[in-house]
Amino acid sequence: MLGLKLATDPRWVNIVESNIEEILTDHAWCEQKAASNAISLITQNSEKEELVTELMIIAQEEIEHFKMVHDLIKERGLTFGRERKDSYVNELFKFMKKDGSRNDALCERLLFSAMIEARSCERFKVLSENIKDPELAQFYRDLMISEAGHYTTFLAFAKKYADNVDVDKRWKEWIEYETSIITNYGKNETIHG
Questions:
Q1: DSSP string of 55-118?
Q2: Contacts of 35 (CB under 8 A, 6+ apart)
Q3: pLDDT tens profile 5-35
Q4: In which region does residue 11 sit, left (phi positive, over 0), alpha (psi from -120 to 50) or beta (all else)?
Q5: 124 vs 51: CA distance, rounded Å
Q6: What band does 113 get if pLDDT is binned at 50, 70 and 90?
Q7: 25, 32, 23: which is closest to 133 by C-alpha?
Q8: Which of 42, 76, 84, 161 has its CA 20 to 30 A from that of 52?
Q9: How far apart are CA 96 and CA 138, in angstroms?
Q10: How far apart are CA 138 and CA 95, in angstroms?
Q11: Mind telling me which PANTHER family this protein's record contains (predicted)?
Q12: Are 125 and 148 in contact (CB under 8 A)?
């Protein structure tokens, strides 16, 4: 469904389980950044009523996920650490085209957002199926479903607002690029790491 070419090795979950505090802190910050991304897209495209309406829902969901992860950290007596740099997202950002019309730029940003959501969804699936902690397995299953919805929303809007972009072709380019960089990740106890 997600179209990703390289699946996360389930052994990544062994790394995650060695430091639950780290994965939860990193995950919380990923949710905060996802909410901020949706708000930024709203701010930059306020004239697009349907986009604004849908992205408000996504922003609310992402901030609720941030709260849920933060609550989980507190309930487990763990420490919520400082924001982490996300090298994976930074590498994806470099691939984003910065030229073209305003709508072309929006389309590119939506594809960038869809890619992050797709990989997050895939990682949540791997966690839900392989982590030994039943509470976290269910938690990540529930979030996986939500992330899949965000992914499809971003892709649908990219298609809707594309003027001069062949979205299907560009999405394939995003998939190829993501495949080339994801091999560097899956070695740390972070969502994308």
A1: HHHHHHHHHHHHHHHHHHHHHTT---------HHHHHHHHHS---S-HHHHHHHHHHHHHHHHH
A2: 58, 59, 60, 62, 63, 66
A3: 999 999 999 999 999 999 999 999 999 999 9
A4: alpha
A5: 26
A6: very high
A7: 23
A8: 84
A9: 34
A10: 34
A11: TRNA 2-(METHYLSULFANYL)-N(6)-ISOPENTENYLADENOSINE(37) HYDROXYLASE, TRNA-(MS[2]IO[6]A)-HYDROXYLASE
A12: no
Amino acid at 70: H
pLDDT at 1 over 70: no
Q: Which helix (H) or strand (E) holds 159?
A: helix 134-161
Q: What's the rounded mean pLDDT across residues 70-77?
A: 98
Angle (deg, nearest 10), helices 49-75 and 20-44: 160
* Residue type at 107 in one-letter notation: C
Written as six digits, the tokens of 54 are: 């849908």
Cα(151)–Cα(188) distance, rounded to whole angstroms? 24
The per-residue pLDDT for range 138-169, each reduced to its tens digit, is 999 999 988 888 999 999 999 999 888 899 99
Cα(141)–Cα(139) distance, integer angstroms: 6
Q: What percent of the chain has pLDDT over 70?
A: 99
The end-to-end CA distance of the chain, in Å, is 22
In whole angstroms, give the CA distance from residue 125 to residue 112: 20
